[in-house]
Specification:
The protein is α/β, with parallel strands linked by helices. It is 44% helix and 14% strand.
Length: 270
C-alpha cells in the first residue's frame, strides 16, 4: 500500500531554498519522491542542494529570483513549470529578517520593505501559480508564516503584521480554491534553529530566557518544519485547506509566568 506521505511523481517549487527551513523543505520533498525546483536570490548554495535532490533520483531545477520583484516571480514560476513539466506543490518559504524596535520608532520605509518581502512575495507567487493549479484541478500551496502572526511579540510589529497577512491570504485562498481541488495551508513556526537565529542561540542567557517561555523548552529544527510541509503536500492532508499548522513547542498556547506547579509549591493556589 502506498504511503499517504509519499510524494512520488509530484512536482514542487520551493522558494527561499538556499538555506534553513526552505532548504530542509526542498530536501524533504525530494526524499519523499518529488521533483523539485529550488529558488533563491543566488544560485551558489542551490547547486549543492540540487545535487542532493538528484541523489534521490529526482529532477532538480535551479532558479534565481528576487522575490520582491513581481516580474521575476512570474518568470520564475513559468520557468519552473517548463523545467518540471507542471507544478503540484508550491512552498512559499522566502522571507526577510524583520525590522526590530518599538512600533513608534520603525520608519515607513522599513514597514514597506518588510511587507514587500514577507507578504507581497507570497501574494505574487500565489497569483503567478494560481491559474496553473486551478486549470489542472489539483495542487497544494504551503505558505510559511510565523507564530508572531497569532501571538503578540513586542518590538516585532512588522513581522506580526506581514505574517498575519500571509495567514489571512492562506485562509481566503483555502476557501476560494477548495472546490477546484487546490489546497492552501500555512505553517507557523516558532523559534527555529537556523542561521538567522544563530547569534541569539549562542548567547546562553538570552537563549535560556527565550526557551523558558517555550513549554517544550527547546528550539525547533528546520527538519521538523519540513516534515510538516511534506504532510501538507501529501495525500495525508487531502481534506485540509485554509488551515494554519502551528509548530512552536507550545509558545502560542502558553499564557506565561509561573507554572501551576510552581504556584502550588508556593501555596498560592488551592
Amino acid at each position: 500500500m502506498p504511503s499517504r506521505f509519499d510524494l512520488e511523481g509530484r512536482k514542487a517549487l520551493v522558494t527561499g531554498a538556499s538555506r534553513g527551513t526552505g532548504r530542509a523543505i526542498a530536501y524533504a520533498f525530494a526524499r519523499a519522491g518529488a521533483d523539485v525546483a529550488v529558488l533563491a536570490r543566488s544560485t551558489d548554495a542551490l547547486q549543492e542542494l540540487a545535487a542532493e535532490v538528484e541523489k534521490f533520483g529526482r529532477r532538480a531545477v535551479v532558479l534565481t529570483c528576487d522575490v520582491t520583484e513581481e516580474e521575476q516571480i512570474h518568470a520564475a514560476v513559468s520557468e519552473a513549470i517548463r523545467g518540471l513539466g507542471a507544478l503540484d506543490v508550491v512552498a512559499n518559504v522566502a522571507g526577510g529578517t524583520p525590522t526590530a524596535g518599538p512600533f513608534v520608532e520603525i520608519p515607513v520605509d522599513a514597514w514597506q520593505r518588510d511587507m514587500r518581502v514577507n507578504f507581497a512575495s507570497v501574494l505574487h507567487f500565489c497569483r503567478a501559480v494560481g491559474p496553473h493549479l486551478l486549470q489542472r484541478g489539483t495542487g497544494s500551496v504551503i505558505n510559511v508564516s510565523s507564530v508572531a502572526a497569532v501571538a503578540g511579540v513586542p518590538s516585532r510589529s512588522t513581522i506580526a503584521v506581514s505574517k498575519s497577512a500571509v495567514v489571512a491570504l492562506t485562509r481566503t485562498l483555502g476557501a476560494e480554491w477548495a472546490s477546484a481541488g487546490v489546497r492552501v495551508n500555512a505553517i507557523l513556526p516558532g523559534w527555529t534553529a537556523t542561521a538567522e537565529t544563530a547569534a541569539v542561540r549562542e548567547n546562553q542567557q538570552v537563549s535560556a530566557g527565550l526557551m523558558h517561555a517555550v513549554p517544550m523548552h527547546r528550539w525547533g529544527t528546520p527538519e521538523e518544519i519540513a516534515d510538516s510541509a511534506v504532510y501538507l503536500a501529501a495525500d495525508a492532508s487531502r481534506l485540509v485547506t485554509g488551515s494554519c499548522l502551528t509548530i512552536d513547542g507550545g509558545v502560542s498556547a502558553y499564557v506565561g509566568g509561573p507554572t501551576l506547579l510552581d504556584l502550588l509549591a508556593l501555596g498560592r493556589l488551592g
